[in-house]
Amino acid sequence: MVTTSKKIWMDGVFVDWDDASVHVLTHSLHYGLAAFEGIRCYEGSTGSAIFRLSEHVDRLFESAHITLMPMPFSKKEVIDAIIETVRVNELASCYIRPLAYVGVGAMGLYPGDNPIRLSIAAWPWGSYLGEEALEKGIRAKISSFTRHHVNVSMTRAKISGYYVNSILAKWEAKKSGYEECILLDPDGYVAEGTGENVFIVSKGVLKTTPLTSILDGITRNAIIQLAKAKHIPILEERFTRDAMYVADEIFLTGTAAEVTPVRELDDRTIGAGKPGPITQALQHDFFRIVRGEDPTYANWLTPI
């Protein structure tokens, strides 16, 4: 259950949490065309800060542009509104959800001149897959559902309707006794999780799926930069499900999942069956950065 906060920003005005509602004929509710972001604010030794805020807002605007939704506010206005949403709700650490959606007006598939609306919510939220998952790793399976084809869905955009695919895959995984699943692309290569990018470690080399049919993850990008700084060999290339079975390490990245190890895939133990040394090193560095403990990456943090 979502832990409620005090206020939600809606089209430039703060409203009470319980009053943040939309009309039942809101276009996006019927057809799924809405762009959103998941952003985290972390509490650190010197205060609270939002991780890579400008990058998230850039991606929100890119998603809207790809899907022909003219944003009703500027990037600076959205950045300022996100910061103020965290402040108004007096949250030391939280998850932040901006959502741009098509409002009430024309019905049918062509939204016409329907207004584009924007809301920003923030609430306390711990580890997406659980604290134990971060420490010990999770059990995952290869999904029976296929990830989007690049000419069926605009995969570089983070669009609400695309996540029906993730909901079905997640439901299947949970009902089968797994914490998460990994989806393959239409050619049968590893794509991504239901809401995460995928990394494997094989013979000391870190590999991740290239930006062909996956979301350009902001945490993914951070991990690639951290790996390069640590002189860990890193490749962006396609790989198969059986390459994952024999990998030394697997981990998932995302704003919600952060850096989550995978200890088992399709009932096959991965490596030693626990988080490996490269996973642990990158996870350690990531959490130091988001908590403001590494001045090298201070530009990734927006203080509250």
Topology:
Layout: E1 7-10, E2 13-16, H1 27-31, E3 34-36, E4 39-44, E5 47-51, H2 53-66, H3 75-88, E6 94-102, E7 116-123, H4 131-136, E8 138-146, H5 164-175, E9 180-184, E10 190-193, E11 197-202, E12 205-208, H6 218-229, E13 234-236, H7 241-245, E14 249-254, E15 258-265, E16 268-269, H8 277-290, E17 301-303
Fill in the keyword field for this structure:
27% helix, nine-stranded mixed β-sheet, 304 residues, alpha+beta, 8 helices, globular, eight-stranded antiparallel β-sheet
Largest sheet, if any? 9 strands, mixed
Cα(first) to Cα(last) distance is 26 Å
| Distinct helical segment count | 8
Mean pLDDT, nearest integer? Answer: 96
Q: Mind telling me the C-alpha Rg?
A: 19 Å
Tell me roughly what share of residues is in helical segments.
Answer: 25-40%
Q: Low-confidence parts lasting 5 or more residues at pLDDT below 50?
A: none
Principal-axis shape equals globular
Number of strands: 17
Based on secondary structure, the structural category is alpha+beta
Characterise the protein shown here.
There is one protein chain. It contains eight helices and 17 strands. Strand 9 (180-184) and strand 10 (190-193) form a beta hairpin. The chain is an alpha+beta fold. 27% of the residues lie in helices and 29% in strands.
